[in-house]
Amino acid sequence: MKDRSLVRASDLAAWAYCQRAWFLAQVRQVPHQRPDVLERGVQAHRRHGQRVVQAARLQRAGWALAGAGMLLLLAGLALWLLR
């Protein structure tokens, strides 16, 4: 059973697009007429979400490498100035 205390953006978008389709799917539990198309959309959104997570990880790794590079640069500069 779905948690009805939380309104998801996708539910709002589905309702705004077609209130009757939303009602039939969410209230009456009428199955989708083209479940293959619906499943392809679900899979596409899942893949997109995975790419977003991967991009965030790569961005954090990039910032960490940039920070490490700056520290090495500062250490090299300090060694050069102290010789």
Can you offer a commentary on this structure?
This protein is an all-alpha fold. The protein has one domain (9-82). Helices cover 78% and strands 0% of the residues. It contains three helices and no strands. The protein has helices spanning 9-17, 19-26, 35-82. The longest helix has 48 residues, at 35-82. It is rod-shaped. 0% of the residues are buried.
Task: Provide a compact summary of the structure.
The chain is mainly alpha-helical. The chain is built from three helices and no strands. The protein has one domain.
Q: How helix-rich are the residues, as a percent range?
A: over 70%
Q: What does the overall shape look like?
A: rod-shaped
Total strands: 0
Structurally, how many domains make up the residues?
1
User: N-to-C terminal Cα separation, in Å?
Assistant: 71 Å
Tally of individual helices:
3
Q: What is the helix/strand order?
A: HHH
Low-confidence stretches: none
> How much beta, percentage-wise?
under 5%
| CA-based gyration radius | 25 Å
Mean pLDDT: 91
Topology of helices and strands:
Elements: H1 9-17, H2 19-26, H3 35-82
Helix pairs in contact: 1-2
List keywords for this structure.
3 helices, 83 residues
